[in-house]
Amino acid sequence: MTDKPNSQASKQDERPVLTTRQGHPVRDNQALRSVGERGPATLENYQFIEKITHFDRERIPERVVHARGAGAHGWFEAYGKIGDEPASNYTRARVLNETGVKTPVFVRFSTVIGGKDSPETARDPRGFAVKLKTVEGNWDLVGNNLKVFFIRDAIKFPDMIHAFKPDPVTNRQEPWRFYDFVSQSPEALHMVTWVKSPWGIPANYREMEGSGVNTYKLVNDAGVAHLVKFHWQPKQGVRNLTSQEAAAIQAGDTGHATRDLYEAIERGDYPEWEFCVQIMSDGDHPELDFDPLDDTKRWPEDQFPLLPVGRMVLDRNPDNFFAETEQSAFGTGVLVDGIDFSDDKMLQGRTLSYSDTQRYRVGPNYLQLPINAPQQGARARTNQRDGQMAYYVDDAGGNKHINYEPSGLGGLREADRNGKEYHQWVEGHLGRYQTSRTLDDYRQAGDRYRTFEDWERDDLVKNLADDLRQCPEPIALRMVWHFWHCDEDYGRRVAEAAGIDLARAKALPPLPGKAAPHQVRQAATYTDGAREGVERETEVSK
């Protein structure tokens, strides 16, 4: 391979210092400034805001990520319960409480890294974004097909995407760039174990799970909050592809998943998902080896089961791809009353980034477009005016001269303050914090490896070995070191398949500035209950 970075140039004292665009030295590029280890983040995160807003503007006009996508219309219907309890015990959100109501939805599925014309057989997480046009306004649930992510702090998102995107010199996706980043970020091991297995290539969009990934909060009428994870479980079952199966499909069709979704809806074979939640009491949960706000970790389903909440059916294709699918815009900050933010640092960073991206990509009035506007009964009424592509003025309460509030001459007023507001006590020292609960950076990846079926482990090892043979030796050795600490068999098999010296890999010291991983030993066999707890939810294709 050519154009590999010179490993001698990696000496810390010879490398230029990272700075902001103002030329200020960056002393911590790993964490947002937050109030205490668990947040919340603060608005005066200048370094992060400069970094993420520049990142949001890096591509014109397609999305920086999730550029290749397909969409469909449908509806959502709540069961009125969360498990066996009334949904109102947990949330006052009408969309999750009212039965017999079909809430309109628009869903956009996507790949993450490739451009608009990239193949849908790529080994890549899939986006799963749902816009629910509720009677109380829009609720956007923006997530992926897998239940975890590569990183847990939003300040690392531009770095991660840069590492996964094509090389700025060769314009090729180079494995060494991906593993160079991952080898320095042990939190990514769990996601890598998923993505490099057959679960990294869903067979299509209909037979694919969805997850909000982030941790949110449900809030009830009494102002009591619970932490929550949102999940979409396909009634069609889950099916994935091996690399060989994906290559065979790609040889004849680079847009097979878009075609599959469109044709299924046209013939009346409407895809359906059950909407489920995992619920946890609000708090730090020191009894867990991981922070429940950490997006790189799963909540064990034997402790926090998936509870059915409702169902979603997609039954209508867009009339125009550009007007609807391409111009559809989603944001993690688009919530309805009864659903609130947690201090999940990825969620807080995405909430700024996603909507900022849409204002740049589509324009400041992107919410006036029919595909993005709330349904008629919840029409927007604001004092925001003008801007690029404004084509109507919001209903200003009968007096369009008054575009401010408060006013004694008409205009808009504040809503009645019904219900008890959710309040969270926040105090702590302002600084940059990384989570101190990192044991599961290795444990959950090892659990996932041990729970795979034999054919899935074989495919995972082959995919990793194929990649690591293309990486510089220091990166390959470090990756084997990581895999060995997840599971001895995992590391040994990858080393053997890739022709890497396992003894040299095991002899590496821990990463500078990071705690040495605790080695997690676990028998290769599981009781049925333990296997279910780690997760074997659905049948995958063999």
TrEMBL record:
Decomposes hydrogen peroxide into water and oxygen; serves to protect cells from the toxic effects of hydrogen peroxide. Keywords: Heme, Hydrogen peroxide, Iron, Metal-binding, Oxidoreductase, Peroxidase. Residues 19-413 form the Catalase core domain. PROSITE patterns: CATALASE_2 (PS00438), CATALASE_3 (PS51402). It is an enzyme of class 1 (oxidoreductase). Transmembrane segments: none annotated. Residues 1-10 have a biased composition (Polar residues). GO terms for biological process: hydrogen peroxide catabolic process; response to hydrogen peroxide. Belongs to the catalase family. The active site is at residues 66, 144. InterPro entries: Catalase, Catalase_AS, Catalase_clade1/3, Catalase_core, Catalase_immune_responsive, Catalase_sf. GO terms for molecular function: catalase activity; heme binding; metal ion binding. SUPFAM superfamilies: Heme-dependent catalase-like. CDD domains: catalase_clade_1. It comes from the Bacteria. This is Catalase. Its cofactor is heme. Heme binds at residue 354. Its EC number is 1.11.1.6. GO terms for cellular component: cytoplasm. Residues 1-31, 512-542 are annotated as: Disordered. Residues 529-542 have a biased composition (Basic and acidic residues). It comes from Pseudoduganella armeniaca.
